[in-house]
What we know:
Number of strands: 27
CATH architecture of the largest domain: 3-Layer(bba) Sandwich
Strand order of the largest sheet: 7-4-3-11-23-22
Number of domains: 2
Amino acid sequence: MPRLLQVVFFSNGMNVAPRLNMREPKHATQKQVVVIGGGFGGLSFVKSFKSGHAKITLIDKRNHHLFQPLLYQVATSNLAAPDVAQPLRAIFNHRPDVRVLMESVEHIHLDEQTITMHNRTLAYDYLVIAAGRQTSFFGNEHWAKFATGLKSLEDAKRIRNDILTAFERAENHTGSETELQTLLTIVVIGAGPTGVEMAGTLAELTRRSLPRDFRNFNPSATRIVLLEAVDRVLPPYPQVLSAKARKQLEELGVEVKLGHMVKNIRHQQVELDTGEIIDAANIIWTAGLSANSLIDSLDLTKDKAGCLKVEKDCSLPGSPNVFAIGDIIHLQDTKGKVVPGVAQGAMQTGKHVANVIARELDGELHRASFHYKDVGEMATIGRYRAVANIGKLKVSGFFAWILWLFVHLIALVGLRNRMVVFLNWLSAYLFERPCSRIIWGANTPEHPKNHSSNHKKRANG
Length: 461
């Protein structure tokens, strides 16, 4: 998320003394724009907002923008964490009108036009809420102790550590075959794009990359189960692409179970509504998201997922100077299309709101309604496999995979990240050697995993 010129850095409740940046704008009368969240929406807003129109304060609880579409590749060892993240300060260090605060927003006071953070209150003339979504277990939040979501670098690191640790334990295993099979079972719950990409990449990892590394067991024997409550994978995609995606997953050895509801999740166990119990050392949750808890206290109309119903210009009803963008909104655009909760939706709403505010500061009274441009959707399924739905073009296989590579490389923030990701992919796909198979930090065998806070994602994307 964007930040201003006078750098005030907050982390874990500690206030590091402010340091004056001599490039700070001179005009104290400039309007104050506060942006909550440094994800795709917040980043797009600040980049699109013309320098000099106002002072912008970008607030995020982390110091980086995360390219979430590639987060699963960090979890599956193909990429390292810095490859998919970029420090927010580095992104906007050339913008003297932008300051960045690493903080968590605790409350939004619409009447007073202020926001409350850990130890300060900040006033605004315009507020842009781009806080993003958080993992949801559909009311079964205790499942977070046993299943890991995938919304942050911490989640990706935990998944990677847990999977690699299970293989290390399998190498040292001297117990029963049942215990060994539990170590070698991974359940992915939710067959949307993230779940499909995760399952396919795990199949590639266990069948192509890891077998040469171990001596006492065969990683190819790993059982990867993909669960989905409806009758097909990639439910938002056209039926023909869903069918092709399932076929490609099964060719990789993924066990696809459709029409299966999860009844309960316990320690290393997933219980289905059919009564079947799957013993698995690793359980990955990609099935549900809900709007960020920051907006819970706002007395406004929301949809079933907790997303804010906004006006046609993305402003909040009754608060024309407050906007919500990205996947925390429920909005039908000018053509009646519901804006999807994907990166493109966040980026387009961010750019739209930046234009609305900039024009208003220039004295223009009319606000344009938002119109969503559907640029398509795509998902990769291991090496040389993908599906893509772009307008009338519906393709799968190698061509879709090339499109996926190109689009994601271009969309990455930062030249360094694009170059490193390209080289890592080249190495992984040519030599079948994932670059980041290091177990480190928390949740190693010396530091047992603790998922208890996995579902408590607070404000700011």
